[in-house]
Amino acid sequence: MSDRTVFFISDGTGITAETMGNSILAQFAIKPRHIRRPFIDSVDKAYQVVREINATGVREGKRPIVFITMANDDVMPILKTCDGKVFDVIQTFVAPLEEEFNMKSNHRVGRFSDPSQDTGYNERIEAINFALEHDDGQSSRSLDAADVVLVGVSRCGKTPTSLYLAMQHGIKAANVPLIPEDFDRGFLPTMLKPYKKKCFGLTIDPQRLSQIRNERRPGSKYASLENCRFEVNQAEAMMRREGIDWLSSTHKSIEEIATTILRDIRPDRLVY
Question: How many structural domains is the chain composed of?
Answer without folding.
Answer: 2
